[in-house]
Design brief:
By secondary structure, the protein is of the alpha/beta class. It has 24 helices and ten strands. The strands form four sheets. Strands 5-6-8-10 form a four-stranded mixed beta sheet, sandwiched between helices. The chain has a two-stranded antiparallel ribbon with strand order 1-4. Strands 2-3 form a two-stranded antiparallel ribbon. InterPro entries: SLC26A/SulP_dom, SLC26A/SulP_fam, STAS_dom, STAS_dom_sf.
Length: 600
């Protein structure tokens, strides 16, 4: 064995530690609950209250974005955060409504009764749970960061344009970005000045408060810095409270000054199974017809849900290590439970995780406190949600999502224009068609770009001198696959013309498929007929196993590292225990026959 290559190490798998360890992996609360003390509880309480102040107005705004009554946002906010306490593995993650989930829900269930939203939540949970149980987390790896950047930016643009009507006090139903812009222009004469002024004030205050936490107040004024940070984090709640108070004080039932959210159903949701049949128009539709109406959203929404949640978990977990299976099982159960309390689809949100992290959260128990705040809001404050101005909710949404546009992606122009093209395609499809289609097109474009890179994999050719004479050294890069094996063979034939020795350096060859193996067999046979010798050397352990199965390959040279040692290995007399291929030594002293020779 080559001393440089060393001894192969056994794969480190998860050792069987018994049912207690397995239970702790699937119920992570058992790991941290034993060491839970008073100081940890205080830290989680502060983080949970801070998160709750952010979660309540966010949930109301996201329900509005999904074209749902605002209480459905709050139904979605408490169940996921509370379940994650017991099942979650990353302390910063908070399961609840997000702008992405709200937009996908709107696009999937537009024009359908709320029962379809509830069923979508439950089915999404079932799909994600199944993905977790089948360990299909690797599917997320097929979606490149460029695709994620493209559809996230597209989501931000779509939401921003869709909420402009709220800023202007307009009311209409539109299904696309183009239709939104067209209807805004057509209804311009109906723009309401009070709503516009309130929107301007809300947006200005939100953006100013957002920067408040970044003010440099000096290291000795710690209490002031903490106060500024808390005000900045709670800016959505403060602005919604101030705008609602103003609307309450100026409310005139006969001539309302502002467009308001309207009546909100008070109290906690009724727990029950999701609707497996409902009324659509004047007919009753069953479960199968409901799923058909939901269409591809039943698959695409869970995929995007998992993608977003795993990305957030990786960003905030220690060392970037995430138990993807457990996270998918947890997310699936949270959405299945959400279907029992009439919630909309939910997943983690980067903004909430960032707030939890900066709040000093220590365990997932912080979600328990934020969930309690949401339940209190549902039970005691719903009568006041009537007075939340729609212009204020639109301002909250726009000021939250405009920073999701990934401007830094333009730097790919210098590094990888192919990835930039994938991001641009995903963005354009998302803006002009739908986010689900954008994810699908982006993933396919990313795979196509990878295949194109393999198709055009460089083949480095060099003329080298040895004790056996001049030879051609060919070094294929990346992989030899069905995509590029014929192109490789054509170039190798042209380079080997008139030379007796051809050496294939497999040092950077990572993959070799069946089609490439058959092509190499044909090349070996062609070269032998022309009194030429094709020698494979410097192969990795995985590639050696595949090359040894190819008929005609002299296995003695496969593990050699240089041209000379490869030639010496082939020239040596074959030992009785050597694999087939020793007859190649006789070809070393022959001259190659060219295509023009009479004997060919």
């Amino acid at each position: 064995m080559d001393t440089e290559e060393g001894e192969p190490m056994a794969a480190r798998g998860r050792q069987s530690d018994g049912w207690r360890a397995a239970l702790a992996r699937r119920l992570p609360v058992l790991r941290w609950a034993r060491a839970y003390d008073r100081s940890t509880a205080v830290a989680d309480l502060i983080a949970g209250i801070t998160l709750g102040l952010m979660l309540v107005p966010q949930s109301i705004a996201y329900a509005s974005l999904a074209n749902l009554p605002v209480q459905y946002g709050l139904y979605s906010a408490f169940i996921g955060t509370m379940l994650y306490v017991f099942l979650g593995t990353v302390k910063e993650v908070s399961i609840g409504p997000t702008s992405l989930m709200a937009l996908l829900t709107l696009q999937t269930c537009r024009g359908l009764p709320i029962d379809f939203v509830i069923l979508l939540t439950f089915l999404s949970g079932c799909v994600v749970l199944l993905m977790g149980l089948l360990r299909l987390g690797f599917l997320v790896e097929l979606i490149s960061p460029s695709v994620t950047s493209g559809f996230t930016s597209a989501t931000a643009v779509i939401i921003t344009v869709a909420q402009i009507k709220g800023l202007l006090g307009l009311s209409f139903v539109a299904e696309s970005l183009h239709e939104n812009l067209t209807l805004i222009v057509q209804n311009w004469r109906h723009v309401r000045t009070p709503d516009c002024l309130l929107s301007a004030v809300c947006c200005t205050v939100l953006l100013i408060l957002r920067k408040l936490k970044d003010l440099n107040v000096g290291p000795k004024r710690h209490r002031l810095k903490k106060t500024l940070w808390l005000v900045s984090i709670a800016r959505n709640a403060l602005v919604v409270f101030a705008a609602s108070t103003f609307a309450y004080c100026t409310y005139n039932p006969e001539r309302p000054l502002l467009k308001l959210s309207g009546r909100v159903e008070p109290g906690l949701p009724v727990i029950g199974l999701p609707p497996f049949s409902t009324t659509l128009g004047n007919r009753t539709v069953g479960f199968v017809e409901m799923v058909q109406e939901l269409g591809s959203g039943v698959v695409m929404l869970p995929l995007v849900m998992v993608l977003a949640n795993i990305a957030i978990a990786k960003a905030f977990s220690e060392g970037g290590r995430v138990d993807a299976t457990q996270e998918m099982v947890t997310l699936g159960l949270c959405n299945m439970a959400g279907g029992l309390v009439r919630a909309m689809p939910t997943c983690g949100a980067f903004t909430r995780s960032a707030v939890s992290h900066s709040s000093g959260v220590r365990t997932p128990a912080a979600g328990l406190y934020s969930g309690i705040i949401t339940l209190l809001a549902l039970n005691f404050l719903t009568q006041y949600f009537f007075f939340i101005p729609k212009a204020c909710l639109s301002s909250v949404l726009i000021c939250a999502v405009i920073f999701m546009v990934d401007v830094s992606v333009v730097r790919l122009w210098r590094h990888d224009r192919g990835e930039l093209a994938v991001a641009a395609l995903t963005f354009c499809v998302g803006v002009w068609r739908s986010v689900e289609l954008a994810v699908l097109c982006g993933a396919l474009a990313g795979l196509a770009a990878t295949h194109l890179a393999l198709l055009r994999a460089p083949l480095h050719l060099h003329a080298v001198k040895s004790t056996r004479g001049e030879a051609v050294r060919a070094r294929p890069t990346r992989a030899l696959l069905y995509l590029n094996c014929e192109r490789f063979a054509t170039r190798l034939r042209a380079a080997a013309r008139g030379r007796r020795l051809v050496l294939l350096d497999c040092g950077v060859l990572a993959m070799l498929d069946f089609a490439a193996a058959k092509t190499l067999e044909r090349l070996i046979e062609e070269f032998k007929e022309g009194d030429q010798l094709l020698i494979f050397y410097n192969a990795s352990t995985d590639v050696v196993r595949k090359l040894e199965r190819i008929e005609g390959v002299d296995a003695r040279a496969l593990r050699t590292r240089t041209v000379q040692t490869a030639l010496d290995a082939v020239a040596a007399p074959p030992a009785p225990s050597d694999p087939p291929g020793g007859e190649d030594a006789a070809l070393l002293d022959k001259e190659p026959r060219l295509p023009g020779d009479a004997n060919v």
